[in-house]
Specification:
Blueprint lengths: L6 H16 L20 H15 L5 H6 L3 H11 L1
Length: 83
């Protein structure tokens, strides 16, 4: 995967993962949605999400970047900057 993917495409893939793997209602998914308070993910879910994103991007999210992620928009930005 490379930078030819837009932030919207990354967001769409992220939403697909959250809907399919985590059974999160699509209506809750927006850039400002907090992974923990709005989407009810816990730390184990967050690690699982990071693994799924690593499979998607074929790149590893650094622990420093991972700690900064709070919202879906943060996830999109981190992935976009990895590519």
């Amino acid at each position: 995967m490379d930078k030819r993917y837009s932030k919207q495409e990354i967001f769409d893939k992220l939403c697909e993962i959250l809907e399919t793997d985590f059974e999160i209602d699509k209506s809750l998914l927006n850039n400002d949605a907090n992974l923990f308070t709005d989407l009810d993910l816990d730390s184990i879910d967050a690690v699982d999400l990071a693994v799924r994103l690593q499979q998607y991007t074929e790149k590893r999210i650094s622990p420093e970047d991972f700690k900064q992620i709070v919202t879906l928009g943060d996830v999109v930005d981190v992935i976009y900057n990895l590519l």
